[in-house]
């Protein structure tokens, strides 16, 4: 089943599985009809919920406990202070599922080191969560050698024993194939870019600014809005938006940066668009319209929240989740404050060309040595945590116990102090429903986010290796590592575009051209997921 593409690197570890081979092992897709979203998915968007939450009317998506009472240990990244064992959230979830889940929470910021050590040892927990950004170095090959094939339990119609898992989109399962076998339980995400140019809509309205529709309009607005004397600048480092405006292939994951053009595979850093995007971002810095914080540091290194709220700059690009989090944090003390997302513009004022990101980013794996009973108990956990919004199981997973972990007022659930301690990133890491956006406290933001994804999704294309789980041979691992620092130096005027051109030339001769041939072989053997 595996396309062995690795040559001397032990081919069975490298490459991917797609096309006919993947179809045999992918779970059947059965859409959930338990809850109807207010805004259905379109153009790859999340589904959206904008109505008040009717707690009395919550649906049940898991009518009977599937867990058989076994004990399952889970190692997962955790950001913040993990709650005490035996807290009310963990015990209520275990009771709901019928499994005794024991958490081994590890610091999310140093998780890659912990992961490497545990996977190299003989003491691997029953379940290990691996975020996509930790899939580097030896981790992908450890995934293949240490974790179970879930195909016998989930491939084809077998998944129908777990209806919430059957409703996970096929693209997300495709990403969960490692080494020719279905090994991961995915956390699905929208394939539309998550990077939104966020702006102070209230200041735009007050000053009469128009939302720009081209790179020239953006620069003109930025100059008008900047007054160093008044301690206001237009923006932070807009490099990520520039890449989208110029149609540069995704830099989120190495395989997404390749695309076939006129029969030739091209990598993102080899394109004219890449250089043009850097040159335009350099112009913003040179014009003095970028906040001094960003001019000094790396791209968006510090928390931009306080200075954005103070109006020191009025545009920045960041993950769309900040659309809601900034709204929520300013709602009480700053009622005038309004953040919104501007549509990505084509650099010349036309439609943009955007590139799809991968449809799942975090995976839970089951130990290869686990018994069938343990695997079934893990799937029972996943079938609860993947319940859709608007169900009892979703509320239990994401909010905990009513009264203890959250209260509800006017259809808006609000976490208590105890909820903020206990109900954190644990059970949500096992498996999740199809990408969902819901903010009962700010439904207009949920609507804005989903509609933004739908509009941008209409301009989103899939590059040649979209959705494939690809492990590059180790000899190429660090080949393009220095480009991010080089980009940051170029846009800040410390290096020149010619330095980038030289670096691309070096990249080709040091292995880039060989890597192209390696990817070509994958494409020839597997076909493409592009569209």
Uncertain parts: 1-13
Number of distinct beta strands: 19
Determine the N-to-C terminus distance.
Answer: 24 Å
Helix content: 25-40%
Strand fraction band?
A: 15-25%
Mean pLDDT value:
93
Q: What Rg is obtained from the alpha carbons, in whole angstroms?
A: 24 Å
Supply the number of helical segments. 20
Report the principal-axis shape.
Answer: globular
**Main beta sheet:** 5 strands, mixed
Main location: other
Subcellular location: Cell envelope
Family: Belongs to the bacterial solute-binding protein 1 family.
Protein name: Lipoprotein
In short:
The protein is α/β, with parallel strands linked by helices and 531 residues long.
Keywords:
531 residues; alpha/beta; four-stranded mixed beta sheet; 36% helix; globular; signal; SBP
């Amino acid at each position: 089943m595996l396309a062995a593409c690795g040559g001397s690197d032990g081919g069975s570890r490298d490459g991917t599985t797609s096309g006919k081979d993947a179809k045999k092992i992918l779970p059947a897709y059965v859409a959930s009809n338990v809850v109807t979203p207010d805004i259905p998915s379109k153009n790859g968007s999340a589904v959206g919920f904008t109505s008040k939450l009717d707690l009395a009317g919550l649906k049940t998506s898991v009518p009977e406990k599937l867990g058989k009472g076994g004990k399952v240990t889970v190692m997962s990244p955790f950001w913040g202070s993990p709650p005490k064992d035996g807290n009310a959230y963990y015990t209520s979830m275990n009771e709901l599922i019928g499994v005794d889940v024991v958490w081994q929470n590890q610091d999310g910021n140093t998780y890659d080191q912990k992961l490497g050590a545990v996977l190299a040892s003989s003491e691997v927990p029953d379940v290990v969560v691996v975020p996509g950004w930790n899939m580097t170095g030896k981790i992908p090959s450890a995934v293949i050698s240490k974790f179970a094939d879930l195909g016998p339990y989930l491939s084809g119609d077998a998944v129908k024993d777990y209806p919430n898992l059957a409703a996970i989109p096929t693209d997300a399962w495709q990403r969960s194939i490692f080494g020719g076998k279905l090994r991961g339980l995915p956390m699905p995400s929208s394939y539309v870019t998550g990077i939104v140019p966020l702006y102070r809509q209230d200041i735009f309205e007050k000053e009469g600014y128009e939302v720009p529709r081209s790179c020239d309009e953006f620069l003109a607005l930025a100059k008008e809005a900047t007054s160093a004397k008044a301690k206001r600048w237009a923006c932070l480092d807009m490099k990520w938006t520039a890449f989208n405006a110029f149609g540069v292939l995704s830099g989120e994951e190495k395989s997404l940066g390749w695309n076939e053009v006129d029969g030739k595979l091209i990598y993102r850093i080899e394109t004219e668009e890449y250089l043009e995007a850097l040159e335009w971002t350099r112009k913003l810095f040179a014009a003095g319209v970028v906040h001094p914080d960003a001019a000094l540091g790396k791209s968006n290194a510090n928390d931009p929240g306080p200075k954005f709220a103070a109006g020191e700059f009025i545009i920045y690009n960041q993950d769309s989740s900040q659309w809601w989090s900034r709204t929520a944090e300013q709602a009480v003390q700053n009622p005038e404050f309004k953040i919104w997302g501007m549509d990505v513009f084509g650099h010349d004022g036309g439609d943009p060309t955007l590139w799809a990101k991968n449809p799942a980013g975090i995976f839970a794996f089951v130990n290869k040595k686990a018994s069938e009973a343990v695997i079934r108990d893990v799937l029972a956990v996943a079938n609860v945590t993947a319940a859709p919004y608007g169900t009892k199981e979703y509320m239990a997973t994401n909010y905990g116990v009513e009264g203890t972990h959250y209260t509800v007022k006017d259809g808006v659930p609000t976490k208590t102090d105890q909820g903020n301690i206990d109900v954190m990133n644990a059970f949500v890491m096992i498996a999740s429903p199809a990408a969902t956006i819901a903010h009962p406290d700010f439904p207009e933001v949920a609507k804005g986010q989903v509609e933004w994804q739908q509009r941008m999704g209409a301009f989103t294309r899939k590059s040649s290796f979209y959705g494939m789980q690809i492990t590059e041979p180790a000899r190429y691992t660090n080949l393009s590592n220095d480009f991010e620092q080089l980009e940051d130096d170029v846009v800040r005027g410390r290096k020149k575009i010619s330095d980038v051109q030289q670096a691309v030339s070096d990249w080709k001769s040091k292995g880039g051209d060989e890597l192209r041939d390696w990817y070509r072989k994958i494409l020839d053997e597997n076909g493409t997921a592009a569209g």
